[in-house]
Amino acid sequence: MAAHIRAFRPSDRAALRRIAVDTADRGSPGRWLFPYTQVTADLLTRYYTDFEPDMCLVAEHEGGLIGYALGTVHPRRHRLIMRTRVIPRPCCVRSPAGRCGNGVPGNGHRLCF
Are the beta carbons of 16 and 58 closer than 8 angstroms? Predict the structure, then answer.
């Protein structure tokens, strides 16, 4: 199987995010460990695809993405954007009664997004 390595394109974003979530647990799906797949995909890929796409490479085979490589040349910027724009902030902390601050019934989690 010969893969073609090329620069990331915005149209690759959904497939790259899917691969990231599907391999989040040392190459296996990490859904049991990271149940919020959109949050997991954001944590693993959003900075690179949205803020430094020039540092994203994808591996393509027969028209589909099969892998990726992400990096940064701006580690301070990476940390700042991850803290302020990527890592989700909880909308509330659930009360002991199981309701979050906006009155939504609890689902057993202490934080809701």
Answer: yes
